[in-house]
Amino acid sequence: MKKVNVRKMDLKDIDSVIEIENKSFKVPWSKKSFEREVKENMLAKYFVVEYDEKVVGYGGMWFIIDEIHITNIAVHPDFRGMNLGSFLLKSMIEYAESIGIYKMTLEVRKSNIVAQNLYKKFGFKECGVRPKYYENNEDAIIMWREL
Ligand SMILES: CC(C)(COP(=O)(O)OP(=O)(O)OC[C@H]1O[C@@H](n2cnc3c(N)ncnc32)[C@H](O)[C@@H]1OP(=O)(O)O)[C@@H](O)C(=O)NCCC(=O)NCCS
């Protein structure tokens, strides 16, 4: 049985994170952006999910007063569909709730049905649209989760 673990992201994780980021997004964040988020952004918290001690996914959030904005979440393509994204998101929600934050929001591409399904599974609901939000003019669906 392989061990699955979620923990806070560290600077030493960033090479693995960048590999996943590049495989997951058309417009990936740079290594510098992740370094800044982990080292300098006091309002940010990033997590990784490990499978058999290998970093295979990550997720991040920003704390904005009493709300959390999920910035990104991704699982390495070779490890998708194994419930790791669910485990990661569940852990992030539990962390938020453990510090008394119950409102979470995010934006997701209209075409990204898999991610929308993941968010809906954890109680996020579609609450609006940001038209032409992405670089290719694709709309963003705004989702919220509130207790
Ligand atoms: C979105 C993502 C993180 C999901 O990670 P994952 O580890 O594959 O997710 P899980 O295996 O935990 O599946 C979670 C839910 O997603 C949905 N899902 C997963 N694979 C799916 C597929 N092929 N088709 C439709 N829905 C799917 C299901 O609702 C699933 O829950 P269920 O199995 O209980 O029905 C992953 O697909 C990914 O990294 N995508 C690229 C990056 C991305 O788009 N991130 C989101 C940006 S907003």
TrEMBL record:
GO terms for molecular function: protein-N-terminal-alanine acetyltransferase activity. CDD domains: NAT_SF. Keywords: Cytoplasm, Ribonucleoprotein, Ribosomal protein, Transferase. It is an enzyme of class 2 (transferase). Its main location: cytoplasm. Acetylates the N-terminal alanine of ribosomal protein bS18. This is [Ribosomal protein bS18]-alanine N-acetyltransferase. It comes from Caminicella sporogenes DSM 14501.
